[in-house]
Design goal:
2 domains; 4-stranded antiparallel sheet
């Protein structure tokens, strides 16, 4: 029975991908695999490879995905540009976290998040339970949360994810 369920799930996933519909995190995982496996120099090449795997994506969506993944453009020995995974690739935040945030301010490697009264400690617990190694700690008040990040690059990336 377990084998039948596995096979059904696999087939449904393949059908879903064949129709060009795929979850954002799954699409981004495919992009990360491509980038880590091959030297790809253009967004158009990434788009073509995705389409070859049955994943249809618009240019705007692809650009957004690449920005969220945090890709870098590097040069190889011959001077050609190619995409590379950033050393600061962060795990995605739990979508629930964003529901609590009213505003975000950044000061170098720290973020100040504002929430409704009484929600900052709940948000701190959610962030802490995520186990992101790029977040060194959180300090919560009644409606304000201080998030201390590993460095300014991480803080900038998280700022855009929080709000």
């Amino acid at each position: 029975m377990h084998e039948k369920i596995q096979k059904f799930c696999y087939n449904m996933q393949r059908i879903y991908i064949k129709r060009g519909k795929i979850m954002k995190r799954d699409r981004q995982a495919v992009i990360k695999q491509m980038i880590s496996r091959d030297k790809i120099g253009t967004q158009e090449e990434i788009k073509q490879r995705l389409e070859a795997e049955g994943i249809t994506v618009t240019q705007a969506t692809l650009s957004r995905d690449l920005r969220e993944i945090g890709l870098l453009k590097l040069r190889d020995e011959e001077g050609r540009l190619y995409y590379s995974l950033s050393e600061h690739v962060l795990p995605s935040l739990d979508p629930t976290v964003k529901d609590y945030v009213k505003s975000v301010s950044r000061a170098q490697f720290m973020l100040v998040l504002h929430t409704e009264l009484g929600e900052a400690d709940v948000l701190a617990n959610l962030i802490d339970s995520d186990g992101n190694p790029e977040i060194l700690g959180t300090v919560a008040g009644a409606d304000t949360l201080l998030v201390i990040c590993k460095d300014a690059v991480v803080a900038e990336k998280l700022e855009s994810e929080f709000y």
